[in-house]
# Entry
Amino acid sequence: MYAAAAGTWTITVSGYNVPQGPQPFALVVDSSVPGATDLPQVRVTVDDGDAGESASNKGGVRVTRTGNTSAALEVAYLVSGTAVAGSDYVALSGFVTIPEGAVDAAITVEALDDQWHEQPESVVVTLAGTPAYTLGSPAAGIVTITSEDPAPDLAMPALTVPALGTPGATIVANSTTRNQGAGYAQESQTGFYLSLNSTLSADDVFLGEEAVGLLAPGAQAISATTLTIPESVNPGSYYVVGTAD
# Structure
C-alpha cells in the first residue's frame, strides 16, 4: 500500500492477457483522501427555549448525529450566556453522550429558584469540536430563563430636608424607602439630587446616595443621609429630589 499525494488521479485498467473476452473485473480503491471523512456529524436543535424557576418548567437543547450509530458518541460543548451557573441554573457538565444505537441526546437546562425577580437571562450551549466528529449547523442553541417571582416596586413616600442651606455646607435628608410591590427587593441605592423643579432630569446635580438593604414586600427603610451642597451652586430656591433604585 502506498501513500498517494493529494490531487486528481486517473486509474486505468489494462487487460494484458485475456484469451477470451469480454472479461469482467472489479476495482477496489482504499484511500484516505484529505477532506473526506466517515466521521459522524453533530448539530444542535432547541427542544424548549424557555425555562422557569418551577421544577416542572425546564428548558433544553438536543444534540443529533448522522452516520453510524453502532457505538456511543461523547460530544463536548461550551456554555455561555448572561445566566450564572450554580446561581441561576444547575451547572452543566460540558459533555453529553449519545447512546449506542441512538441518534440524539438531550441537555436539560434547569433553573434554580430564588426569591428575587430578575430580568430574563440566557444559557447558550455551543458544540465544541473533537476528533470524534464534525460540526454541523446549527452548532449552538439558546435557552432563556424567566423569573417567576413577583416584582418589587420601590418608592419614596417621605423626604424632608432643611429649609435653608449654603453652597459648600452639608444638610441632612430624612427619607423613607418602601417596597410597595409583591416581590422581595434586593439591596439598592436611594439617590438625592438638587433640582430647579420637583421633577428629576439629566441636568440635576447629584448630591449623594444611601444604601438600602433587603426589603420584603411592604417593608420600608428609614434613613438620615448627610449631603453636601456643591460650592458651585448659585444662590436660589431648589428642590431636593429623591429616587429609589
